[in-house]
Amino acid sequence: MIALEGLTKRYGEKVAVNNLTFEVRPGIVTGFLGPNGAGKSTTMRMILGLDHPTSGAVRIEGRRYAELRDPLRTIGALLDANANHGGRSAYHHLLCLAQSNGLPERRVREVLDVVGLSAVARKKAKGFSMGMGQRLGIAAALLGDPRILMFDEPVNGLDPEGIHWIRTLMQRLAAEGRTVFVSSHLMSEMALTAEHLVVIGQGRLLADLSMADFIQRNSRAYVRVRTPERERFLDVLRSAGLTAMETGGTLELDGVAAEQVGELAARHGLVLHELSPQQASLEEAFMRLTAESVEYHAHSDTPPAGERAPWGADWKKG
Amino acid sequence: MTTERTQQIPGQAPRTPSYVSPIPIRQANLGHALASEWTKIRSVRSTMWTLGIFLALVVVLGCMVAGLIGADTYLNAPYTMPAFFGLLLGQMCLVSLGVLVVSSEYGTGMIRTTFTASPQRHRVLAAKIIVFFLVAFVTAAVAIAVVGLYTQLTVDAPSNPAWLPTVFKGALYVSLMGVLALAVGSMMRHSAGAITTMLGVVLVPAILPPFLLFNESLVDVAQFVSDYNAISALSLIFEGSPSTGHGGAQTALLAGLTVVACAGAFAAQANRDV
C-alpha cells in the first residue's frame, strides 16, 4: 500500500506535482497515467524518497521511505533502465544491491533467471540493448521479492515479446497480492494491464477510478452503417425514433444495438454495405480528459486528421 | 476541474491479503553497506586502472630511483625514501579513484538505485569512505613497503632511520588525500570538476609561495603554504629531520581538512534531490 497525501513539488515558480492525494492498493495493477511532463516520474521519485516534497507526504505501508529498515523487501522500483554503472556486469550490479539489504546471493541468480539475463550476467551493462537494460532494471526491482512494485514506463524499448512478458509479469505479481504501480503515457497499454487508474495532468489529479468505471464513463459505443440507400434509410430510422450522425460516407447511430439496426433494415428491404458495432478508443477518452493539461503540444502544419492528430492538438481547439 | 473517482463501497476490504515473501528478513546495517561497497569498488575497471597505475608509478619509479641515489643519502633517510617520487605522481591516481567512487554513481544514475536500496544515505557514504580508505591505504602501504624492501636488499649502504613508520605515514597521507577527493566528489557530483578541483588542491599550494612573496605582508602565509603543501608534506614524511619534523603536523592538517570536507559531504547529500 502506497499512500500519498497532499504531495506537492515546486521547482521555483513551476509546480511539478500539485497536491496529489491517492492510495495504491494491493492485489491489483494500478496504472499511473498522464501525458509527458505531467509529473509522473517526479511523483515516483518522491515515493522513493529520492526527491523531497515541498509539502505533503508519502507513506509506504504507513512509514516514510527513509524509515524503511528493509527497503528492497518492501518496495522494488524500476525508475530508469540506465540507473546502473555501465562498466559493471549485470551480476555485480545486482549483487551489490542484494548485499546492501542483506539478501542472499542466490536471489541474484534467481532474478537473472526470471528476466532471462542469465546468459549475459557477466557482461557489462553498457553493452546491453535498451530492452536488456529494462530487464536488468526489472531484475533489480524483483530482487527483494517485495510487497510493492513500482515501474516507470516499463514497456519503453521492449519488443512485442518483451511487452507481452512484462504485462503478464505485472498481472502475476498483482495476483500474488502485491501492490503494483505502473506509469505510462499510453492509455492503450494501461487498458490491457491495469485494473485501476490514476490519471494526472500538469501535476494535478484528474481521475482515480477503476478501469471498468473509466471505460463505462468515457467510451462511447455506437453502430456504424454504410448504405447506398442513404435517404430511405434515414427515413426508416426517423420513423423508428432513431437519429443518426453523418460522418463522411458513413452513419453513426448512438444508443442502439447493431442487431436492432440490422433487423430494421431487413424489414424494409434496405441494402447495407456495412453494419458494425464500434467503440470509441480509450486513447481518445484519455486525451479528452487530459486535453487542458497537456504541457507540450505538437503543432503540425497540416490540419489534424481524426485519431492520428498529434497529441491533444485538436482538443485544444474545441 | 473535478476529479473522477470510484465510489468506494463501505466495508469492502481489499480482495487479497498482502503478499508475504518466503525470504527471511534481515535488517540492513553498516556491515551490509560495506559488503555492497566492496563489491562495487572491485567490479569496475576504473579501480584496476587507477590502482594499477599507482602501484606501477610507486614501485617502478621507486626501484629505479633507489639505485641512482648516492649511498650516503640513506644515512639520514629511510630505505623507503625512493617511494617519495612515485607517490608525488601516484597520489593523483588515488584522488581520481576517490572522486570516481562517488561521482560515477551520480554520473550514471546508479545513485538513484543505490539510495532506493539504502535510503539511509549517511550509511552509504560512510561505507564508501571506509572501503575506499582501506583499499587505498593497503595499496599504498604495500607499494611503499615493496620499495623499502627492494632498497634495503639492493642498496649496499647503512641507514639510520627506521623505515616501517614511513610506510604507515606515507600510506596514511595519500589515502587521506583520496578520502578528501571522495568528499569533494560527493559534494560536486561531477567527476571532471571534482578531479580538477583536487588537482588544484594538490598543486596550487606547491606553486603559490613564490608569488605570495611579492607582497611583504604575506611572508608568513607564504611560509605556511610552503611548509604545509602536499609535496612538502610527503617529502618531510620520507626525508624529514628532527629540525623540520616528520610530516606529523602536515598529516594532521590534511586529516582536519578531510574531516571538514566529509562533514560537508554528509550534510550536502542528506536532503538533496538525486
TrEMBL record, chain A:
Domain of life: Bacteria
GO molecular function annotations of the record: ATP binding
Segments forming domain ABC transporter: 2-227
Range of residues in the leader sequence: none
Listed InterPro entries: AAA+_ATPase, ABC_transporter-like_ATP-bd, P-loop_NTPase
Entry protein name: ATP-binding cassette domain-containing protein
Residue numbers spanned by region Disordered: 297-318
PANTHER family found in the cross-reference section: ABC TRANSPORTER, ATP-BINDING PROTEIN (PTHR43335)
Source species of the chain: Streptomyces fragilis
Keyword set, alphabetical order: ATP-binding, Nucleotide-binding, Transport
Pfam family for this entry, one: ABC_tran
Residue ranges of the TM segments: none
Family according to the record: Belongs to the ABC transporter superfamily.
SMART domains referenced in this protein's UniProt entry, alphabetically: AAA
Automatic annotation (TrEMBL), chain B:
Ranges annotated as spanning the membrane: 48-71, 83-103, 124-150, 162-185, 192-214, 248-268
Keywords: Membrane, Transmembrane, Transmembrane helix
Protein name: ABC transporter permease subunit
